[in-house]
Amino acid sequence: MTEKIVSVKKDEVKIWLGFASQVWSSDMDYLQEAFLNDQFPYEFLYWRAGKALAWLSLSIRKEYVEGSSHLPLAYLEGIAVTQEARQQGIAQELLAFAKLWAKAHGCVQLASDCSLENIASQAFHHKMGFREVSRSVHYILNVD
């Protein structure tokens, strides 16, 4: 079997949306439009035997990120593996790809985040070797 990690093409936007919707709560029409307008330039699909089994979203951040010590900084925006392809080492392959990608883009750190209640994502990050650097709760007040 041949596996490959390749950039998402515009004609694969529906596949991309299927993965992105598992991770992000944004409006799908907005995401599709943003993707088609090149606002997500570092999106990748993991293919095996003609089937997309996983997705990886990366970015480069130039502003300070909690816990970082170097800029620019590679950022893991999202990652998802189909249910039937889990526990096969695909996430590890994607993370290895992300690290090489980060180095190729002049970054020495890869950062990520998840919500406080997303225990599965926290476990994934710890398993992959990420170090927790902070926790935060955000507030808002309407000023009518």
TrEMBL record:
Keywords annotated in UniProt: Acyltransferase, Transferase
InterPro entries documented for this protein: Acyl_CoA_acyltransferase, Bact_Acetyltransf, GNAT_dom
UniProt entry tagged with the keyword DNA repair: no
Listed name of the protein: N-acetyltransferase domain-containing protein
Residue ranges constituting the N-acetyltransferase domain according to the UniProt record: 3-144
Superkingdom of origin: Bacteria
CDD domains: NAT_SF (cd04301)
Organism name: Streptococcus azizii
